[in-house]
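REQUEST ID: PR-0412
SUBMITTED BY: lab tech R.K.
PRIORITY: routine
TASK: structure prediction, single protein chain
INPUT:
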Amino acid sequence: MATFEGRFTEAASLRIGVVVARFNDLVTAKLLSGCLDCLSRHGIDTSEASSQLDVAWVPGSFEIPLVAQRLAASDQYQVVITLGAVIRGDTPHFDVVVAEVSKGVAAVSRASGVPVIFGVLTTDTMQQALERAGIKSNLGWSYGMQALEMGSLMKALP
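STATUS: complete
OUTPUT:
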């Protein structure tokens, strides 16, 4: 029997693309900060001159899958992280955006074979989003950890 697991110690060899939604950037910028902190502490060069990391900003969460698809298809990245925040309002717009971004990100990952980390918050209020982006804990850190684990795991699989 073989057991396959990702190793966080192998991060230095990964090339990572991050797609961040500009809409609700009060939240998404904090998610990005937490994500970059995690990646940096695990050996990824997150400087402006980094050859290991690229960040692409898109207008909103709805646009995330298209850019994630482009990055995944480029054969330049072992993993792609998506960061966004969709906050429920008074109209059905929330449901439409959440459904499409989640389906789109999953489809990109399956079609490309590149792990695409779903880091899009879906909350009822801005307060909930802010809590998940740093007031209580920063899920950006968790998304970074997921990326490191999945990038390493994919290298280990036959």
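NOTES: The beta strands are 16-21, 53-58, 79-87, 116-123.
REVIEWED BY: pending
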